[in-house]
């Protein structure tokens, strides 16, 4: 029986198991807003891994009518949309994106938050797959409805109230995946009206620091990075601009051996908006 024992899989592993009936491949691409990161797919030129289905958490598998982008949906909506993709309770899921390793970790964490543990991120994503001259197709697969049942763990995503209570808790660290300049309030926020700076006591860990050429750094390197930021027994809450790259840090922390993990879903799009929530620049 096919099993995944890591939150990360290599292209070699995926190629070897691509024909397995239990395997579900999901394209979780979202257009990047971070400077220096680009998608290899566009309207004129589209490529997908054979058998892939579209997991669109930016416009479909998200909380409807929210003022904040791609917020985590209720379990019922998640279950309904995932079943449409042919996902079953026994499915082994691999998620990828067309940047390399950018949007896919959020999809991985969403499935984990809905009780599905047999899910992993494709290290290097579609760009690495194509660079290795592996087969691609020009459209997504047509599938039959699945039987996936969501079992929500609401601790894996948190809201601003949880973050606010955690700011001065010694058993919790808050890591911010935005650039150091945005963290310090020296660079403008991409969303109009959003304040610059960071949460009191948060620590800066720009997400590119855990990556190497579109792939996650080794476990040994990640252990060294996180050792200076949080203890293994502490809870680690990650945040970013809108809840996407925070999940890259969560994936990296998981690979480094951290288990008490949560993603601030609203992230800076919510916290930085004009409000009573505290913002500092030092």
CATH class of the largest domain: Alpha Beta
Order of helices and strands: EHEEHEHEHEHEHEEEHEHEH
Number of strands: 12
Count of folded domains: 2
Name the CATH homologous superfamily of the largest domain: Rhodanese-like domain
User: How are the strands ordered across the major sheet?
Assistant: 1-5-4-2-3
Radius of gyration: 18 Å
Helix vs. strand class? alpha/beta
Low-confidence stretches: none
Major β-sheet profile? 5 strands, parallel
Can you tell me the CATH topology of the largest domain?
Answer: Oxidized Rhodanese, domain 1
Write down the overall geometry: globular
Ends distance:
52 Å
CATH architecture field of the largest domain: 3-Layer(aba) Sandwich
Taken as a percent bin, the fraction of beta residues is 5-15%
Helix proportion: 10-25%
Mean pLDDT score: 97
Number of helices: 9
Features:
globular, five-stranded parallel β-sheet, alpha/beta, 2 domains, Oxidized Rhodanese, domain 1, 12 strands, 282 residues
Written account of the structure:
The protein folds into two domains: 8-131, Oxidized Rhodanese, domain 1 (3-Layer(aba) Sandwich); 157-271, 3-Layer(aba) Sandwich (Oxidized Rhodanese, domain 1). Helices cover 24% and strands 14% of the residues. It contains nine helices and twelve strands. The chain has helices spanning 11-17, 75-84, 104-113, 125-131, 160-166, 180-183, 219-227, 246-255, 267-271; strands at 8-9, 23-27, 53-54, 92-96, 119-122, 157-158, 172-176, 203-204, 211-212, 215-216, 235-239, 261-264. The mean pLDDT is 97.
């Amino acid at each position: 029986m096919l099993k995944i024992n890591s939150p990360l899989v290599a292209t070699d592993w995926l190629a070897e198991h691509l024909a397995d009936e239990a395997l579900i491949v999901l394209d979780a691409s979202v257009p990047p807003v971070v400077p220096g990161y680009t998608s290899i797919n566009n309207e004129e030129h589209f490529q997908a891994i054979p058998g892939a289905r579209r997991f669109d958490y930016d416009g479909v598998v998200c909380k409807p009518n929210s003022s904040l982008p791609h917020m985590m949906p209720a379990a019922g909506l998640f279950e309904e949309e995932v079943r449409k993709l042919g996902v079953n309770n026994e499915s082994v899921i691999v998620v990828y994106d067309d940047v390399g390793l950018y949007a896919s970790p959020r999809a991985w964490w969403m499935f984990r938050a809905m009780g599905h543990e047999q899910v992993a991120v494709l290290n290097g994503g579609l760009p690495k797959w194509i660079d290795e001259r592996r087969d691609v197709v020009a459209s997504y697969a047509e599938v039959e409805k699945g039987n996936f049942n969501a079992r929500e763990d609401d601790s894996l995503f948190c809201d601003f109230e949880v973050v606010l209570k955690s700011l001065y808790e010694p058993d919790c660290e808050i890591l911010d995946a935005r650039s150091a300049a945005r963290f310090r309030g020296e660079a403008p926020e991409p969303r109009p009206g959003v304040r610059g700076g960071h949460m009191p006591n948060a620590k800066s860990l720009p997400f590119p620091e855990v990556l190497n050429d579109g792939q996650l750094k080794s476990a040994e390197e990640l252990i060294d990075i996180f050792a200076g930021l949080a203890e293994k027994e502490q809870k680690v809450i990650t945040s970013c601009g809108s809840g996407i790259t925070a999940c890259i840090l969560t994936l990296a922390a998981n690979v480094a051996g951290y288990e008490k993990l949560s993603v601030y879903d609203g992230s800076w799009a919510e916290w930085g908006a004009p409000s009573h929530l505290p913002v500092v620049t030092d």
